[in-house]
Specification:
Blueprint: H1 3-11, H2 17-35, E1 38-41, H3 43-58, E2 70-74, H4 101-108, E3 112-117, H5 151-158, E4 164-169, H6 175-181, E5 184-187, E6 207-212, H7 215-225, E7 256-260, H8 261-265, H9 269-284, E8 288-292, H10 297-315, H11 328-331, H12 334-347, H13 349-352, H14 356-373, E9 379-383, H15 398-402, H16 409-414, E10 418-426, E11 429-437, H17 442-455
Parallel strand pairs: 2-3, 2-4, 7-8, 7-9
Antiparallel strand pairs: 1-3, 4-6, 5-6, 5-10, 9-11, 10-11
Helix pairs in contact: 2-3, 7-17, 10-12, 10-14
Active site: 74, 149, 173
EC number: 6.3.5.7
Keywords: ATP-binding, Ligase, Nucleotide-binding, Protein biosynthesis, Transferase
Length: 459
């Protein structure tokens, strides 16, 4: 059953919000000790909300778009009265005193927030192994990483512990775990979803977005969390569409797909084969394929990480142990400390011109070239992640870990929308196909993903 259909059944009271919630509470009770997807849940407040929603439906009152659906929130997004730890000892006792804009909107539309999901510490990672509260297991590929940094949110959906979840995507932190866990993950155009209430990793890249088991759920959640927010400086005023209106396409006739040679060159052959099969299906549905070339792929990772280091260093200066939490450098993990030290070094006056300013220039070049690629096609399709997830506990050098991001950082550097959905499996391990589009054509991507989802419902 698709999420959109389920939401209608709840509104029609064929399924009660309380029954839906209790089913997930039982699943969390059975599975969370094994998967470590949720760091904190609050069944009490969730039950109160479910009962209130059921009462509204019984009384014939209007209910919101998410009525009765159960949602997990990444632990770097503020939710009142939950611990907002960013999976770090630094903030292990920090209790949220307000709701982020996306959380307010979810509550206004009668979504039920069940708890906070695990993640890489301060979103600095691609595996959800750096969490202070322990790593998260991948239910779709046991013994392997679920991806990161929003691994807990992806696993919560993949393991059917909630209907939907939200994460943050700075360089692929939604799309990477969506690929590894075999679910749908979507990063909106920069500025389309408010960042108010999100703990920064790198503010010029960060975007909040949805996870779902199918595209209809991601579109439904985008209907709720998308749109202008006057309280947030990066929020963009635009004519926000109804994303769910794009669902139900059964043809891709007239759709032009760009296939970038270099995206396939850097990817494992087994992944390439799976993604090419999905592209062939899209051609069978009427899409036209155009071969493209992008000569700057080797520039993307260093550009992204140089900017990331500087912005992360700046963002962490508030964690000085005086106002709340502990001093970050004294309690954080190795990867967070690496980024703080690198950001501090690059930020120094004598090095900023040599590294940071050149990285900003390179970012402008990459953004310009990506927009050129998209000029004559509707979307670019290719692998989400270039390699299969490693086994949990494998020791990797930092650059080996960063290489997971080579195909996902491009969308963040360019500020464009991008989604990932399951294309198939390699030896039982999910493989994602990434679809990237022009700025503010988020709904077009979701429409194409929906058509592919409906054409291959068993994937």
């Amino acid at each position: 059953m698709k999420l959109l259909d389920k939401s209608e059944l709840i509104k029609d009271h064929e399924i009660t919000a309380l029954d839906n919630l209790e089913m997930f509470c039982r699943t969390i009770g059975h599975k969370n000790d094994d998967y470590n997807a949720f760091l904190e849940i609050n069944e009490g407040s969730a039950h109160e909300r479910a009962e209130a929603i059921d009462k509204k439906i019984e009384n014939g009152e209007k209910v919101g778009k998410l009525a009765g659906l159960v949602i997990g929130i990444k632990s770097n997004i503020n939710v009142e009265d939950f611990h907002i730890t960013a999976a770090s000892k630094t903030l292990e006792n920090y209790l949220g005193s307000y709701d982020a804009t996306v959380v307010k909107r979810i509550k206004q539309e009668d979504g039920i927030i069940i708890g906070m999901t695990n993640m890489d510490e301060f979103a600095a990672g691609s595996s959800t192994e750096t969490s202070y509260f322990g790593h998260t297991e991948n239910p779709a590929a046991p013994g392997r990483i679920p991806g990161g940094s929003s691994g807990g949110s992806a696993v919560a959906v993949a393991a059917e512990m909630c209907d939907l979840s939200i994460g943050s995507d700075t360089g692929g932190s939604i799309r990477n775990p969506a690929s590894h866990c075999g679910v749908v993950g979507f990063k909106p155009t920069y500025g389309v979803v408010s960042r108010q209430g999100l703990l920064d990793l790198a503010m010029s890249f960060d975007q909040i977005g949805p996870f779902s088991r199918d595209v209809s759920g991601a579109a439904l959640l985008m209907d709720v969390i998308g749109g202008y927010d006057e309280t947030e400086c990066t929020s963009v005023k635009w004519d926000s569409p109804k994303f769910t209106d794009q669902l139900g396409q059964n043809s891709l006739e007239g759709t032009s797909l760009g296939v970038v040679k270099q995206f396939f060159d850097v990817s494992d052959d087994k992944i390439v084969n799976i993604v090419e099969e999905s592209i062939d299906k899209m051609k069978d549905m009427g899409a036209e394929v155009h071969e493209l070339s992008f000569d700057y792929i080797d520039l993307c990772l260093p550009t992204y990480y140089l900017i990331n280091y500087v912005e992360f260093f700046s963002a962490t200066r508030k964690y000085d142990g005086r106002k709340y939490g502990e001093r970050i450098e004294e309690v954080c993990g190795e990867e967070v400390l690496r980024r703080i030290y690198m950001g501090s070094y690059i930020s120094q006056k004598e090095f900023s011109g040599k590294y940071y300013k050149k990285a900003l220039q390179a970012r402008s070049l990459i953004k310009r070239e990506v927009n050129k690629l998209l000029q004559n096609v509707d979307v670019i399709v290719g692998p989400t992640v270039p390699m299969l997830p490693h086994k949990i506990g494998t020791s990797l050098e930092p650059m080996d870990m960063y290489s997971y991001d080579v195909l996902t950082v491009i969308a963040n550097l360019a500020g464009i929308p991008a989604g990932s959905m399951k294309a198939g499996e390699v030896n039982g391990i999910p493989v994602g196909i990434q679809i990237q589009g022009k700025p503010f054509e988020d709904s077009k991507i979701l429409g194409i993903m929906s058509a592919l989802d409906d054409a291959d419902p068993e994937i």
